[in-house]
Amino acid sequence: MISDSKYEQMAIIMKAMAHPTRLYIMDQLNENEYCVCELQEKIGADMSTVSKHLSVLKHAGIVGSRKVNNQVFYKLLCPCVLDVYKCVVEIKKTN
Amino acid sequence: MISDSKYEQMAIIMKAMAHPTRLYIMDQLNENEYCVCELQEKIGADMSTVSKHLSVLKHAGIVGSRKVNNQVFYKLLCPCVLDVYKCVVEIKKTN
DNA sequence: GACCGATATGGCTATTTGGTAAAATAGGAA
DNA sequence: TTCCTATTTTACCAAATAGCCATATCGGTC
């Protein structure tokens, strides 16, 4: 059985990205920095749900956050995420 | 609630990639075409498990297959998958 | 101090996923 | 046809995930 932690670690990051709402969040954060309530408004889900999605992305190291008073602003840490988008679009085309 | 099927479709493809064994398979298939039993030997898991992983990748349009006698050979359809790898490695570095 | 707005966390249920073993399928050889 | 080998599918169980509600937490204001 392969037990290379390289693939385990990659899978953690990929899993964090592999959710429609989180892909949408990443797309938004690529253009701008947003606070949780702004994202919540765009998404239309429960605040706790949005907060949880953001925490998944943060733990994976995909987004970062800074606190301003009682608001928390999130931003994309690695713009290369767009390359992933491009690849997925490429695969979609071939289907 | 956002209901853009664009993100749903992307998530399906990402989810298909987001598993250590499947990342390993993709990595192998990027170098070569392999049949199921060869991959099974490399991975060391149950044959049915490997077959299931391959079927997940195939349904997502990531790999293709051709049958030669009673063997099925799989190959990567879209080499851009490597870009995804690069991005994940990039994110790992910042962690 | 108490209160309020913004976020995060814990608990619960429903759904999905991953793995194995057993049965089914498909093609070639005896 | 029967046997054999490679692969897929089915059935089942354990574990992980997503969503919502209720409950913290944390800063600033009154």
Describe this protein's structure.
- The structure is a homodimer of 95-residue chains.
- A three-stranded antiparallel beta sheet of chain A has the order 1-3-2.
- Chain A is globular and about 45 Å long.
- With 95 residues, chain A is of the alpha+beta class.
- The model of chain A has no long low-confidence stretch (mean pLDDT 90).
- Chain A starts with a helix and ends with a helix.
- Chain A is built from five helices and three strands.
- Chain A has helices spanning 5-17, 20-31, 36-43, 47-59, 81-94; strands spanning 34-35, 63-68, 71-76.
- The longest helix of chain A has 14 residues, at 81-94.
- In chain A, strand 2 and strand 3 (71-76) form a beta hairpin.
- The A-B interface holds A 1-2, 4, 7-11, 13-15, 17-21, 23-24, 27, 42-45, 60-62, 77-78, 80-81, 83-92, 94-95 and B 1-2, 4, 7-11, 13-15, 17-21, 23-24, 27, 42-45, 60-62, 77-78, 80-81, 83-92, 94-95.
